[in-house]
């Protein structure tokens, strides 16, 4: 392999954004800001060509309805088993092993129980600024009909909390936030994911 070929994916990984609904464009912009190359994903076949994936916020039930067509849910389940995936809000709900309020299907990649709409209705959406484990001081976090991570299991590292509950967590190749980092100008959360993708590329055989 020539040196340019091998260093390209490391410097600018190709990261998919599931573009079914929700604010996928804001995620694509945030990825560019964090040094990655975004790819909008609308078909299961596209998953083969990306190094990582963001599942954005939106409505998890709507995502599920769409994904249940054309075997997309099965392909995604396989992808999230070992490929870096970042779920925000509805994306976090989809990644969890268990979903409540009400119970629904999920991808089962994040060892956690997530309760939907735990902070009330749309009108209760809010912006909080709080400390996290990320370097660089307090982080702005935008919550929109946010879920709550009520329980985490083995291997889940908590990077930030709200009222004592985790709001940003990492478990190996999985990153999940109950808020919307793409709606703030701070790129540290996307940067964390891009770095995670880069480290996976560096350590996996090509
Ligand atoms: N309330 C939504 C759900 O349950 C998630 C909200 C969001 O992604 N902003 O799927």
TL;DR of this structure?
With 206 residues, this protein is α/β, with parallel strands linked by helices.
Descriptive account of the structure:
This protein has 206 residues and is an alpha/beta fold. The chain has one domain: Class I glutamine amidotransferase (GATase) domain (Rossmann fold). The chain contains six helices and twelve strands. The chain has helices spanning 3-11, 24-33, 60-67, 72-82, 90-95, 188-203, and strands at 14-18, 37-41, 52-55, 85-88, 96-100, 110-115, 126-130, 139-143, 148-152, 157-162, 165-171, 174-177. The longest helix has 16 residues, at 188-203. It binds glutamine. Glutamine is lined by residues 57-60, 89-90, 93, 116-117, 144-145, 147.
What structural keywords apply?
206 residues; alpha/beta; Rossmann fold; seven-stranded mixed β-sheet; three-stranded mixed β-sheet; 6 helices; 12 strands; globular; disordered N terminus; binds glutamine
Bound molecules: glutamine
Shape: globular
CATH superfamily: Class I glutamine amidotransferase (GATase) domain
Q: In what order do the strands lie side by side in the largest sheet?
A: 2-1-3-4-12-11-10
- Terminal-residue CA separation: 11 Å
Task: Give the DSSP E fraction (strand runs of 2 or more residues).
Answer: 25-35%
* CATH fold name: Rossmann fold
Regions with pLDDT < 50 over 5+ consecutive residues?
1-9
**What percent of residues adopt helix (DSSP H or I)?**
25-40%
| SSE run | HEHEEHHEHEEEEEEEEH
- The value of Rg in angstroms is 16 Å
């Amino acid at each position: 392999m020539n040196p340019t070929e091998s260093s390209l994916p490391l410097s600018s990984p190709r990261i998919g954004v599931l573009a079914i609904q929700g604010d996928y464009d804001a995620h694509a912009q945030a990825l560019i800001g964090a040094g990655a190359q975004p790819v909008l994903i609308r078909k299961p076949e596209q998953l083969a060509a990306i190094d990582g994936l963001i599942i954005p916020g939106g409505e998890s039930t709507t995502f599920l309805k769409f994904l249940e067509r054309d075997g997309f849910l099965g392909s995604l389940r396989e992808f999230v088993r070992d490929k870096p995936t970042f779920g925000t809000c509805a994306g976090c709900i989809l990644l969890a092993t268990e979903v409540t309020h009400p119970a629904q299907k999920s991808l089962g990649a994040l060892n956690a129980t997530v309760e939907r709409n735990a902070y009330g209705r749309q009108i209760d959406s809010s912006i909080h600024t709080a400390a996290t484990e990320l370097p660089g001081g307090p982080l702005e976090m935008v919550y929109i009909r946010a879920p709550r991570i009520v329980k985490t299991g083995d291997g889940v590292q908590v990077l930030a909390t709200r009222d004592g509950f985790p709001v940003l967590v990492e478990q190996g190749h999985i990153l999940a936030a109950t808020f919307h980092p793409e709606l703030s100008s701070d790129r540290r959360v996307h940067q964390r994911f891009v770095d995670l993708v880069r480290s996976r590329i560096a350590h996996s055989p090509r």
